[in-house]
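Ticket #4471: structure export looks truncated?
Reporter: QA, pipeline team
Priority: medium

Steps to reproduce: submit the single chain below to the structure queue and open the exported record.
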Amino acid sequence: MKLGEAVARSDMRVMAEKALAAGPLCDHCLGRLFAEVDTGLSNAQRGRRVREAVGGPPAAPPCPLCDGLFGRLEDWAARAREALAGWEFATLAVASHADPQIAAREEMLWAAAGGELAEPYKQEFNRLLGIRLCETLGCEADLRDPDIIVVADHAAGKVDLDVQPLFVAGRYRKLVRGLPQCRWPEWPTSIQEIVGDPILREVQGEDHFFHGCGREDTDVRCLAGRPFVLEVLRPRRRRPDWAVLAQAINSSGKVEVLDLATCRRGEVARLKALRPEKTYHAVAALGRDVTDAACEGLARLVGAVTQRTPTRVLRRRSDLVRRRCVVSLEWRRTAARTLELTVRAQAGTYIKELISGDGGRTTPSVAEVLGIAAQCAELDVVGIHLDAPQSQT
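Actual output as written to the record:
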């Protein structure tokens, strides 16, 4: 319905007359009462048409509702541009802390004239300021996941910035043992620091967090590319040369990164939800000599495995019994007391305990099948199967 026709209806006309009786409202504040009518118009255009339709008096500044706030939009835009100077971004959003006095006057107007079709003043302000900033700065509006949020405090008359983190996706290969994934006081460095610190310096951020698609033990190498997302807080720059950064990270000789690129916030949740099967290469040290014929029994390990939380991690994980699936297992006897195993298993399978049995907490196990003591001497992740269907527990 066109706005002029709507106001001609008795109920809409009464709304307009009651609103104008409250004082010489500006076109923005008058038009906002009819925000859901004739959506092709701005609120200022609605206000002018409503005023014409009822023969209301012209607006007389300052507006008794917004106190001239909408007439000062360019002042707010200038403050925002000053605050944004020195920050690199491609998208932005605008948010506001409402002036309690303006909000109270708006509530009173809605109570007197009706607010069923109205838009809050803060919402219009955010939209209009966002449009101005995008036009003058050459960026885009993104209300869901912006690079930066301009926060206007209407009562204090100031602008602050809520700088959103930079999210960097990639894959890492851990080439050495004795390296934790995340920062840990007991260790001199970590994958997080080797990867994150050069990126932090380049984008001039304040700190970083590391989100991995699972993790390997400190003494386990990851020769497959494990997906990760690095979250950098308050970055001043967002478009570094990722190839140059990857080269700097890879020069450590401890970690290699692949496919560095920016991603959106939602990639962290997607990454955490992944449960890919993994393939491991393990060296098993046996308590006594074993024959090839005895090793043929290791085929029993393929299929369902029951694992109670390993003794080595009980101090930090709940004592639960889990069922996991071993998808495939190949073995090669390299010495009388040494086996090399290639195991593909469901996410969350404890491979070290699949070998040792952990005192019967994992069954079946290499130790159980062979009837001898067995320990995992070396373990590497050699495959992360992101494209394969996920095994069911």
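Status: closed, not a bug. The export was complete when the record was re-opened. Leaving a note from the reviewer for reference: Residues 166-273 form a domain with the Alpha-Beta Plaits fold (CATH 3.30.70.2510).
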